[in-house]
Amino acid sequence: MSETSLPQPLHDALLDVLGATGLLTDTTDTDPFCTDWRALYHGRCAAVLRPASTEECAKAVALCHAHGVPMVPQGGNTSMVGGATPDTSGAAVVISTTRMNRVHAIDHADLTMTVEAGVTLKAAQDAAAAQGLLLPLSISSEGSADIGGVLATNAGGNNTVRYGNARELALGLEAVLPDGSVLDVMRKLRKDNTGYALRQLLIGAEGTLGIITRAVIQLQPAPRSRETALCAVGGAAQALELFAAFRKQDPSAIHAFEFMSGTSMGLVNTLIDGATLPLEEPAPAYVLVELASPRADDSLRTLMETVLGEALESGLVTDAVLAESESQRQALWVLREEHAEAQKRAGASVKNDVSVPLAAIPALIAQATEACEALVPGLRVAPFGHIGDGNIHFNLVQPEGADPKAFLAQDHAIMDAVADIVRGLGGSFSAEHGVGQLKAYMMPAWRGGAELETMRRIKAAIDPANLMNPGKIFPAA
């Protein structure tokens, strides 16, 4: 049964543009699009629009704009901050890009990929790998997160330490603006000094300025040699010292350098089937280090063994295991990639995706742990993340046996306690997950004055009716 609340003329026009498979109005079909991955937000929508091309998307957006209907862009629906979830009014439509899922071209001369927004990151990685190339962006949700969402949130991930965030990997972009016009800056140029870099305005805007529909992504030669090791360390200070040791030897060889607390690793080992810690004893913390090179005969094993040998001898590292096969390498990466899922299974959690200067990471973890344990005795402090670029997911899991709702009722107090420490250390309250609706209330204190006002002016200039992803990034007036 159709339960649409769209005006009938708009419904009929959208049906004509999108077809029956591109317009969902029954709540049975639309409900999955109205809840975020963490189940923190449960909204409602008038319909879900599923365009199969930029042309369809532009026509649908123009129709919604003409009728004053709010629009919520959504890709793989993996947002950690409610950035792709509609509010509870039911007035908005969700515009899903999942049907726009074609890889158009891979250019070996330019080392680029032209891809539609609905291609999952994993599918794009696989397409590049089939051509002997590497799409270096890698995140835990890459199997469901898509290119449009990755760019809209300026995703970071495991390889940022070497290749940068999504922003650094996007050369060209196409987007449908709030009025239905199409912004086409699909250029492959590394050098184009002709005014504002408009693609960068859309990247990281979380869908508040338009819907990304296509992109030109930079690729790299695929690694032909790779070495991966899991190391037990005493804590964040030792992890940073180990990072410095590898960087001193060859910074260009570091492909990933990931930190995991003992508590968070314990949840993975307990709650994730097939996850096995290949070390003799549990440790206070762990580091997963991966070295990679496009040269087949690179001496990465020698580099790995030299640095780890010295670290083991000095006591900086207490135990370590090196992957001897691709299957062993993947098993080590499972231990890192499943932290978010393990914490989800352990109960309610408050996530703090923060960044600080590298030297401040030990102080961040120590001070934030003390502050949060004082607020909620018994909570499980489970930080992990990309220590090589200063991004720590300082996550707090509810005390065992606690009421999840009661714990989440304290989320702002917990986030604010962590944020105060991050601010004192010169950091950011959102390193890679974005602001969404979860953290919009923080913006005036952190980005107030001329910075936030400039953002508001840009938003008002491009979307004066505030129809594109309203309620995200900007706090309620």
Automatic annotation (TrEMBL):
Cross-referenced Gene3D superfamilies, in alphabetical order?
Answer: 3.30.465.10, 3.30.70.2190, 3.30.70.2740, Uridine Diphospho-n-acetylenolpyruvylglucosamine Reductase, domain 2, Vanillyl-alcohol Oxidase, Chain A, domain 4
Q: Which PROSITE patterns match?
A: FAD_PCMH
Q: Which cofactor does it need?
A: FAD
**Sorted alphabetically, which InterPro entries does this protein's record hold?**
FAD-bd_oxidored_4_C, FAD-bd_PCMH, FAD-bd_PCMH-like_sf, FAD-bd_PCMH_sub1, FAD-bd_PCMH_sub2, FAD-linked_Oxase-like_C, FAD-oxidored/transferase_4, Oxid_FAD_bind_N
Record-annotated FAD-binding PCMH-type domain positions: 41-222
Q: Which domain of life is it from?
A: Bacteria
Which keywords appear in this protein's UniProt record, sorted alphabetically? FAD, Flavoprotein
Q: Which GO terms describe its molecular function?
A: catalytic activity; FAD binding
**Entry's Pfam families?**
FAD-oxidase_C (PF02913), FAD_binding_4 (PF01565)
Any GO BP annotation: respiratory electron transport chain
Its family remark reads: Belongs to the FAD-binding oxidoreductase/transferase type 4 family.
Name it: FAD-binding oxidoreductase
